[in-house]
């Protein structure tokens, strides 16, 4: 029995090794938490799809399931398999720093995708690829300023407290508004935790508190923005401009319908394609920038037809 | 200092029956004081619009808490209600577009009752610890929800003709439908708990399992039923939440189990089993919600709201245990 197992094992390893020898590069990927939200699911599909378009690349695509210990073990495995590059979507920017350092020591380039690793880890990574979440906040502020003609009072619904994207989108929005649009002031911010129902509750309370004093709402993603829209519709308030970030399908429809002012497009497909493109450049020996941001354009009723309806 | 306060509670019980009654109703008085204080600082607080909004928001947690009260009276816990809510909401919203509103509701209810009966079977018949069982179930259902949706949000598109639209926006005598459902369910369940043989068996099972063992009550069956009830009320809440946001996210119920538990405990149900009341649970949930709403209207940040909320809950639990313990010592 044991002999049989050993032979099967040997056969398997020969198969796999010849398989990987047939390709020039092996890229190991470990993602944050596929299947927990539409964005990450779509990213996963796009990534695997794009990989098949590089004939000389073999991909090992793993998912950490949101578990940082599992992700560290996965990076360890990838190092041991001597992959040519690692694409990492960190579950936690702090805890992954030591293992990223080890990868660098072993001469394997690490490309961080979507959300960045901590400051301390920056010296060990080769490149970052993802959206510039600060800029997204700025864009949202510009949209808000434009929508309100530079004058009004807005309430803000932020993302999950402590999550870097939430922090950056809030910072970008607040800083840009203060600097470039002094006529628009933020009268309150509360977190909506990326949760539509929660945001609806927050918005209902805002409406009770400020009523018609509210001219605009900024929600850190469209999912929460739609929650705010539900509350506004229910209270029968008109002329409130809603601006979101990360355009979801529901947000896209609401912009088209005219009940939602604008948002910022962030496509998981662009995200995945950008991460792979940077990695290929590195493998081919081309010089790359440290920070690579893919484009996240503003979308309003005026230009919505230039964009496809998001799949999530 | 605390021993002094504890002794003070003891004295209330030992020496003065009238004060004892006051202490028992202290919670209700506290609620009224809370409403009064907030209304001094915020003009909007007691306006009917705000009151209706808060009760509508409280309905989702409140409806779940009604079912969970049964479980807790029986001396067990149900921590899986939050994930069950996510699952139920996703399921009912997704099926709504595929097979229509009523069949969707029926299918979702069936699915949740199956989950509830698994909980009930493991706790009641296999005598496993309810904390462990339902905590495990929490993850299992969360996983099932993620598999079912493959990470996507579900939206109800056929809104206008739907019964969901009525639940969401409809009013009867100017009262929003969620509030009416909340009240009706609460009354029916209060009657079930206080006015039926099942209710009396449940109090006996939670209060004194040993005595029940010798009295011939089938306590396993009673405990099993409590998990069905909690699954049923969570199903009702799933309909409320799905019609409220006209769709569902697979994480929509995350963390609800703790808020529900907080409401039930604040309502005076003992975690040791054997005591509890639906009306008081509803009051407990309302206190939580009005407290959060009041703090929000006064402009406090989210973090402060949570700190205050949980300080109040811990205080209430301590008060409950302090009073009960003295009472037990006296008896």
TrEMBL record, chain A:
Pfam families: Peripla_BP_4. It comes from the Bacteria. GO terms for cellular component: cell envelope. GO terms for biological process: transmembrane transport. It is found in: Cell envelope. SUPFAM superfamilies: Periplasmic binding protein-like I (SSF53822). Residues 28-287 form the Periplasmic binding protein domain. One of its GO terms (molecular function) is carbohydrate binding. Keywords: Signal. Residues 1-22 form the signal peptide. Belongs to the bacterial solute-binding protein 2 family. This is Monosaccharide ABC transporter substrate-binding protein, CUT2 family. The lineage of its organism: Bacteria, Pseudomonadati, Pseudomonadota, Gammaproteobacteria, Alteromonadales.
């Amino acid at each position: 029995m044991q002999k049989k197992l050993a032979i099967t094992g040997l056969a398997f390893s020969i198969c796999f090794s010849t398989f990987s020898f047939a390709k020039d590069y092996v890229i190991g990927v470990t993602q944050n938490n596929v299947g927990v939200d539409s964005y990450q699911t779509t990213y996963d599909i796009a990534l695997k799809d794009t990989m098949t378009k590089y004939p000389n690349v073999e991909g090992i695509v793993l998912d950490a399931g949101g578990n940082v210990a599992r992700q560290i073990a996965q990076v360890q495995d990838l190092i041991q398999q001597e992959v040519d590059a690692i694409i990492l979507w960190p579950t936690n920017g702090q805890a992954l720093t030591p293992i990223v350092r080890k990868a660098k020591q072993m001469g394997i380039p690490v490309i961080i995708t979507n959300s960045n690793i901590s400051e301390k880890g920056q010296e060990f990574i080769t490149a970052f690829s993802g959206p510039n979440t600060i800029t997204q906040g700025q864009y949202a502020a510009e949209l808000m300023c434009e929508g309100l003609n530079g004058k009004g009072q807005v309430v803000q619904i932020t993302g999950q407290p402590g999550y870097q994207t939430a922090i950056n989108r809030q910072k970008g929005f607040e800083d840009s508004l203060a600097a470039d649009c002094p006529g628009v002031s933020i009268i309150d911010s509360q977190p909506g935790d990326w949760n539509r129902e929660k945001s609806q509750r927050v918005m209902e309370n805002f409406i009770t508190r400020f009523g018609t004093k509210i001219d605009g709402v900024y929600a850190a993603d469209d999912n929460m923005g739609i929650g705010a829209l539900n509350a506004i519709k229910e209270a029968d308030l008109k002329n409130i401009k809603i601006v979101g970030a990360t355009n979801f399908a529901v947000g896209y429809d609401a912009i088209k319908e005219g009940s939602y002012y604008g948002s910022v497009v962030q496509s998981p497909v662009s995200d995945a394609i950008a991460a792979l493109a940077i990695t290929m450049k590195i493998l081919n020996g081309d010089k790359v920038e440290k920070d690579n941001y893919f484009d996240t354009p503003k979308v309003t009723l005026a230009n919505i037809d230039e964009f496809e309806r998001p799949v999530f | 200092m605390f021993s002094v306060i504890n002794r003070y509670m003891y004295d209330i019980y030992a020496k003065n029956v009238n004060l004892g009654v006051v202490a028992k109703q202290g919670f209700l008085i506290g609620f009224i004081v809370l409403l009064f204080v907030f209304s001094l600082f915020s003009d909007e607080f007691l306006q009917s619009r705000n009151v209706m909004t808060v009760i509508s928001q409280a309905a989702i947690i409140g409806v779940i808490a009604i079912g969970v009260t049964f479980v807790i009276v029986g001396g067990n816990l149900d921590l899986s209600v939050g994930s069950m809510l996510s699952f139920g909401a996703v399921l009912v919203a997704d099926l709504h577009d595929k097979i229509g509103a009523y069949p969707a509701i029926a299918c979702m209810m069936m699915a949740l009752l199956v989950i509830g009966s698994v909980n009930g079977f493991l706790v009641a018949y296999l005598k496993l610890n309810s904390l462990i069982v339902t905590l495990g179930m929490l993850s299992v259902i969360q996983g099932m929800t993620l598999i079912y949706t493959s990470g996507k949000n579900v939206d109800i598109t056929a809104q206008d003709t739907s019964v969901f639209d009525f639940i969401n926006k409809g009013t009867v005598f100017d009262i929003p439908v969620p509030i009416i459902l909340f009240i009706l369910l609460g009354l029916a369940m209060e009657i079930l708990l206080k006015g039926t043989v099942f209710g009396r068996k449940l109090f006996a099972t939670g209060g004194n399992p040993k005595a029940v063992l010798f009295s011939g009550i089938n306590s396993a069956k009673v405990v099993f039923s409590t998990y069905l009830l909690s699954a049923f009320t969570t199903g009702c809440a799933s309909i409320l939440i799905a019609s409220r946001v006209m769709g569902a996210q697979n994480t929509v119920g995350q963390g609800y189990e703790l808020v529900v538990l907080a409401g039930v405990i604040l309502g005076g149900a003992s975690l040791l089993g054997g005591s509890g009341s639906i009306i008081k649970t509803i009051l407990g949930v309302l206190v939580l919600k009005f407290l959060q709403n009041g703090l929000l209207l006064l402009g406090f940040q989210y973090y402060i709201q949570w700190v205050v909320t949980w300080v109040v809950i811990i205080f209430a639990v301590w008060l409950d245990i302090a009073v009960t313990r003295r009472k037990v010592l006296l008896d």
